[in-house]
Prior knowledge:
Helix content: 40-55%
Strand order of the largest sheet: 1-2-4-3
Number of helices: 5
CATH topology: Collagenase (Catalytic Domain)
Number of strands: 4
Shape: globular
Number of domains: 1
Oligomer: single chain
Radius of gyration: 15 Å
Order of helices and strands: EHEHEEHHH
CATH architecture: 3-Layer(aba) Sandwich
Strand content: 15-25%
Amino acid sequence: MKLSVTIGHKHGVNVSAVMTAAVKQSLFAALRSDNFDGDAEISVLFTDGLGIRKLNRRHRKIDSETDVLSFPIGEVNPENGFNNLGDIVINIDRVYKQAAEFGQTPVREAAFLAAHSALHLLGYDHEDKDDELIMRNQQRVIMALLGFVTNTD
């Protein structure tokens, strides 16, 4: 399996190389944990609270900030044959805030949000209790693969 990850940043949003690497590793681990077969591509945009609020309002009709958004695509890229799984938008402001709240590092929190969002791109959801339990368990597997084992997932 090959994974192509494109990382972008809203102007003025700074993301460390370590955090970027952790996000990429998290996406790969998410696909691996789901036994994804084939080559894939995912794009990730780091933005701030205002940026994600605008996207949330435009695409989900919810006028508030959130920590991460997932936009599944699920089409084959004709240029390279990779499965374009979709786009992920991570709110860097929430990464730091939630890391402090949960007693985690920002790198770990960004990796968790990437894993969570990748699962949405793969078709997981948490609309009901059963689906939420399945998704939480899969998140734990991914975080363990990355060496992040905690009880807050």
